[in-house]
Design goal:
The chain is of the alpha+beta class. The protein has eleven helices and 18 strands. The two termini are 46 Å apart.
């Protein structure tokens, strides 16, 4: 059982998947078997603010998940968000040796050299993602293994976060009795479940609108170009409505979900909303156009901030595959139209890509990160299986050859008196 845990500011989301055995006609595949969503406590803007409250919320999600699948869980893949996550471009270089063929070990060494970038003492590297390799000055190489050369360089993206926040997140999960398989930057997991290889190749920006933060990732030619976490989310829209209508925050959330839209021009000025429908203590009627104006102003600010990130890498209005918006905040009516207007790009909603599943409930905009974490775990386990299979093949070959040459007996004699 592979579990993905998305610890958000407003909700804790967990998606569960299992491996479908390989058959003669079909390769091993991932099957999603369920999902759990519980209210989130102890998390604000992607960081832990109360360990006890966070542990309580995560424990509730785990208990429901274990009842759902009928078996205990042992570990989870955890998503890491928050404005403290930073993206930095780094370069590494190593000597290969004259006439030598580049091996996997050389690639590992050059990536380790890229990791040596000056990192603040209170930060920890989460991912090193190679952008391109250079062999003796030749650029644009995606996989250098097998090439010959003397000098190997790499240009890589370093994703890092505050060590204290990473440790706090891991501590929350450990206190529930589960192990952490890995901490993944949330937007990378979201990309696993929503973006196709063609979209990444053509050029696209993924925008995940959460409760208190919005994460973005820009891709081109199959590689990630830029990652950023913006300190604004759908919760800020709720707060603006509460201030504008002078109503309770819970009432503002209900109004947003029931009659909210990011297209104020599509709302009749004469249309009114009776707040008593959402709160018995409120007996006033407000213009729905006013609600839409409040929402549109905040959405405009959000997409202008996204466009500023695009400008940092000179891709404003210049990504052929456009913008893919996802997350719970993307459910707001009119978000696609607003994104097209302010980003000047083709825009579509980013649902989890279809795969075998026992429930349709996982095909939800708010679950893309949790689904992506499960897919990340599946890919990791498959890679480990391939690595283990390679080792076993090597051992079988070694012992088969060693048996013929009588090397095994000589080796054993050297260790046994």
């Amino acid at each position: 059982m592979i579990a993905g845990l998305d610890i958000g500011s407003t909700a804790i989301k967990m998606v569960l998947g299992t491996l479908v055995p390989r058959t003669k006609d079909h390769p091993e595949a991932l099957q999603v078997v369920g999902r759990v969503v519980v209210p989130g406590e102890g998390i604000s803007k992607g960081v832990v603010t109360s360990i006890e409250d966070a542990v309580s919320s995560v424990s509730s999600a785990i208990e429901q998940a274990e009842r759902l699948v009928g078996q205990p869980l042992s570990s989870v893949w955890v998503g890491m968000g928050g404005a403290h996550v930073k993206s930095e471009l780094s370069r590494g270089v190593v000597a290969v040796g004259k006439g030598n063929e580049i091996q996997e070990s050389d690639v590992e060494r050059v990536l380790e050299a890229a990791r040596a970038v000056a990192t603040p003492p209170n930060h920890e590297i989460l991912h090193v993602i190679p952008h391109q390799f250079y062999i003796d000055g030749q650029e644009g190489i995606k996989n250098p293994v097998g090439f010959s050369g003397i000098r190997l360089e790499v240009e890589a993206h370093i994703l890092q976060g505050l060590s204290s926040q990473i440790n706090n997140l891991v501590k929350v999960v450990h206190r529930t009795g589960l192990e952490v398989e890995g901490v993944i930057v949330s937007i990378l997991a979201t990309a696993e479940s929503t973006l196709s290889a063609r979209q990444k190749d053509l050029g696209a920006v993924l925008v995940n609108i959460g409760g208190s933060t919005t994460s973005i990732a820009i891709f081109e030619e199959g590689d990630i170009m830029h990652v950023a976490v913006l300190p604004i989310g759908s919760g800020h829209i709720t707060g603006d409505i509460a201030l504008g209508l002078r109503c309770a925050i819970d009432t503002a959330e209900k109004v947003k979900l029931a009659v909210g839209t990011a297209e104020s021009g599509e709302v009749d000025k004469r249309e009114e909303v009776d707040l008593s429908r959402f709160d018995a203590d409120e007996d006033v009627r407000v213009s729905r156009r006013v609600v839409a104006d409040i929402i549109e102003a905040r959405v405009e600010e959000l997409f202008e901030m996204v466009d500023e990130e695009l400008k940092k890498v000179n891709r404003s209005g210049m990504l052929p595959a456009g913008a893919i918006i996802t997350g719970g905040g993307a459910k707001m009516p009119g978000m696609v139209t607003a994104a097209k207007k302010y980003l000047r790009l083709p825009v579509q909603l980013g649902y989890p890509q279809e795969r075998p599943s026992t429930t349709d409930e996982v095909y939800d905009l708010s679950l893309t990160t949790a689904v992506g974490l499960v897919e990340w775990g599946f890919a990791s386990e498959r890679q480990q299986a391939q690595d283990f299979g390679g080792i076993m093949k090597w051992l079988k070959k070694y012992f088969r050859l060693a048996k013929k040459s009588n090397v095994v007996k000589k080796t054993l004699k050297s260790f046994i008196p």
